[in-house]
Structures are given as C-alpha cells and as structure tokens.
Design a protein that fits this description.
Blueprint (H helix, E strand, L loop, with lengths): L8 H17 L5 H12 L14 H8 L1 H14 L4 E4 L2 E4 H28 L6 H23 L3
Antiparallel strand pairs: 1-2
Helix pairs in contact: 1-5, 1-6, 3-4, 5-6
Length: 153
C-alpha cells in the first residue's frame, strides 16, 4: 500500500483557501434544529393526552435529560455523515460543499492553463530561467489541484 506524502506548505495553503471558499459560499446547517425536527416528527405525546399532547418531544428530552439529548444528537450526526460535511466545527450540505470545491478547483485549473499557455509562448530562444520558473509554477499548481481534489473532509 502506497503511503501519501505529507502536504507541502503551498498545498496546505491551497487546501486552506479551498476551505475558506467553501465556508464563504455554502450555508451552514443548523444541526440542532434538524435534530429537533427529527425527534418531533418521530415521537409524540398525543397518546398521553391532556396538557402533554402539545409538548415538543425534543424540548422535553433536552430539558429532562440533556445528556441523552446530546448522545442522541451525536448518534444522529454519525448517521448523517453521507449528507453533512463538518468544516471548522460547522456542518454544511455535502452537495453544496462538493459544488463549491469543484468551482474552486476549476479556478485553479484556469490558472494552470494560463501558466501552460505562457510556457508554450516561450520559445527556445527565450530565457531558460524564466521558462524554468514557469515550469516550477506549473508543477506547484498541479500539486495544489491534486491536494484539493484528494482532501478528505
């Protein structure tokens, strides 16, 4: 099994920029509200009747047994791993995150294309140092794109 090379500082910066882009472009998911909605949809006090019939199961659980509420929410979040992505302690819809990641990588790919065009415009009579500098930029940009594509949330 091939082990992954550690990210370079430039790759770490590219991934950090991608994450910042995602956070700025995507809406945070209010996991408390979603969990409460799930509890209220699944459970009811209507069969108990009286004053209890209009009580919110999520609120009752949260106030009567906050530990059970938090444990249940953590279990629920584990089950939502396919649809929610955690970034910097906040949750985002996976579809939005992947779309935003794609847009960011497309921007990096556009920058790579510009560098490749610039390198192609240089001919053999041009300064070798300049050509080598552009080649280095191309390599770094390719590594940045790869790091962003391979980043696991």
């Amino acid at each position: 099994m091939k082990t992954k090379e550690p990210l370079t500082i430039g790759q770490k910066e590219a991934v950090a920029a991608m994450l910042a882009h995602i956070v700025s472009e995507c809406s945070r998911v209010d996991t408390d509200s979603r969990y409460d909605d799930m509890l209220d949809e699944c459970f009811s006090f209507e069969s108990v009747g009286g004053i209890f019939s209009c009580m919110s199961p999520s609120r009752v659980l949260k106030e009567v047994d906050p530990v059970a509420y938090r444990c249940g929410k953590n279990d629920w979040l584990d089950g939502e791993r396919d649809s929610l992505i955690e970034i910097e302690g906040n949750y985002y819809n996976d579809d939005e995150v992947q779309k935003s990641r794609g847009e960011f990588i497309d921007g990096l790919s556009d920058e790579l294309s510009e560098l490749q065009d610039e390198a192609a415009d240089l001919d053999a009579t041009d300064d070798e140092v300049e050509l080598e500098a552009i080649s280095d930029k191309i390599t770094r940009k390719e590594m940045d794109i790869s790091a962003c594509q391979d980043h696991a949330f």
